[in-house]
Amino acid sequence: MPLVIAGTLFLASCKPKDAAIQAAIQAKEPAGIVVSVEKGQVTLTGHVLDETAKANAEKIATAEKGVKSVLNQLTVVTVEKPIVIAADTTLIKNVADAVKDFPSVKADVKDGVVTLTGTVEKTTLIKLMQLLSTLNPKKIENKLTVK
Amino acid sequence: MALQDKYKGLTDAAIAAGITNLAVREQDGILYIDGTANDGATKDHLWEVYNQTDPNFVSGDLVLNVNVSINAAVTKAKVITQSSNLNIRKGPGTDQPIVGKAAHGEIITLVNRSTDLWWLVRTNDGEEGYCYAQYLAPQA
Fold first, then answer.
1. Cβ pair B57:A125 closer than 8 A
2. What sections of the protein cross the membrane (chain B) (predicted)?
3. H or E segment at B52?
């Protein structure tokens, strides 16, 4: 009987706990991947660049001691999600609204391409680009002179 | 593929920052990166990375469309113009007549944020109309 108890204890101590497995895998996975573990079952969530990164992440988890199974729910970001490009009528209006407070900037819109001319301060350039990038242009042709 | 390599640092930063609904794809020599950031600081960080890869954004080969998620429960916003008052307009557009002004730094009520660019607001004086969302900071 004491032998059986000792054997059980030995087995139990050999089996790393979920939290330890989680920490071990998390430390090996690249940033952006969330690892969760329940009763030795690993779930991976988050974003990865491509299928290779997705497969690698799963390999890392599978190789960890004590892991029973791996559920790979990682999302690949280089997907065929349609690219939305605004119609010129919408874009012209929205670009006009956006550049209103940048008096030294002139913006022309044609076939989805926003062409910027004039001058801009370096610090406000980011602000302007951030604004224009949310308007679904095809392209931003930046010909501004940065002061 | 070359563009994805050029902006790999940016994509990696977006993944590491936990950008949701992230999508990266290339079409006609332009890379499109879409996603939602948890806060403005994360968005600004990605733009800094973009600026390092393509100083002053002169290449015209990337459209970085990252917006900031807003908690639907938020009903107040602060006017964050540089110093001037913020125009309140009858409709969503600078071609619309000005129906009121909100002072710089004033906290106003958000009535409707159904469009990204223009938000329907109400001032403490009861003036109601549309403001350019860029100049409003939602208050948690």
1. yes
2. none
3. helix B40-53
A125–B23 C-beta distance less than 8 A? no
Instruction: Provide, as residue numbers in chain B, all residues whose Cβ is less than 8 Å from the Cβ of A117.
Output: none
Whether the CB of A140 is below 8 Å from some CB of chain B: the reply is yes
Q: What ipTM does the predicted assembly reach?
A: 0.82
Question: Domain A15-76 class?
Answer: alpha beta
Establish if B94 touches chain A: CB-CB under 8 angstroms: yes
Q: Please, which residues 58-87 of chain A have a Cβ atom closer than 8 Å to chain B?
A: 75, 77-81, 83
Q: Both ends of chain B: CA-CA distance in Å?
A: 40
Residue A74, pLDDT > 90, answer yes
Q: Where are the domains of chain A?
A: 15-76, 88-146
Domains recognised in chain B with CATH numbers: 2-68 (3.30.70), 76-138 (2.30.30.40)
Does the pLDDT of residue B75 top 70, yes or no?
yes
The pLDDT value recorded for residue B72 is: 77
A101: nearest Cα among A133, A131, A134: A131
Residue-wise pLDDT tens digits, B33-60 = 999 998 889 999 999 999 999 999 999 9
Q: Which CA distances in Å does B60 have to A107, B37, B55, B132?
A: 14, 23, 11, 26
Pull the structure tokens for residue A21.
């497995």
Q: Which residues contact A113 (CB under 8 A, 6 or more apart)?
A: A137, A138, A139, A140, A141
